[in-house]
Description:
With about 240 residues, this protein is α/β, with parallel strands linked by helices. The protein has helices at about 1-20, 20-25, 40-50, 65-80, 105-125, 125-135, 165-175, 200-205, 225-235, and strands spanning about 55-60, 85-90, 95, 95-100, 140, 155-160, 180-185, 215-220. It is built from nine helices and eight strands. The strands form two sheets. A six-stranded parallel beta sheet has the order 5-2-6-7-1-8. A two-stranded antiparallel sheet has the order 3-4. β6, α7 and β7 (about 180-185) form a beta-alpha-beta unit. The longest helix has 20 residues, at about 105-125. It is globular.
Amino acid sequence: MRQQVKSKDSRRNRRILDNSTLLDVVQDPHTEIPPLQPLNDAQRKYLNSIKSNTITFGIGVAGSGKSYCAAGFAADQLRERKIDKILLTRPAVEAGEKLGFLPGLLSEKLEPYLAPFMEIFYERLGKSQTEYLVKHGRIEAAPLSFMRGRSFKNCIAICDESQNLSRNQMLMFLTRIGQNCKVIIDGDPQQTDIPGTSGLLDAVHRLKGVPSIGVVYFTADDIVRSGIIKDILLRYQQD
């Protein structure tokens, strides 16, 4: 008898998941998530641009909260069911190394590149909920090389460290936009690890003045991660 009851419960739980109520399954009703608040004027402009535009470029120094604002906004939109999923990507270029040289499966290769986003999702959604949504594809990480032919619909797509995109990669990413989609692209042109012109700067120059595209710049004065980062950057800029 107990086994039969357990079987019925299992079927009921599968129906819950199939009915797209993943957020309810692991959401703690007693947990209140405070509203996402900008810490300075640049972050305020950035969040306002994300809310009002289809595409937003966040350009500037490390530690200014570009990724935090983008991921935090996306997490809130997913929790409030205004989108179906979050799509994350990042060029597989870091200090001269490429994704293919890392050991393990694709998911394991992507993990160190997307770890900063996971920390933000844990904060805005909770660790259990984030892991559950990743498992069921509501938060997806994908290499740029896997995006050709895809269409972004009912989602927020975030491209981090975009200074390492080529012109063609940026064009391919931007032309994935479908219905009810917002694209957030952040990067620091001073940290480009690829030869030639960065696709980030090329896109900002080409798309200047196009409706529904916003560009927000962050300077050393906007750093919120640590005060010493500002001092370090200013010294390196003296060359």
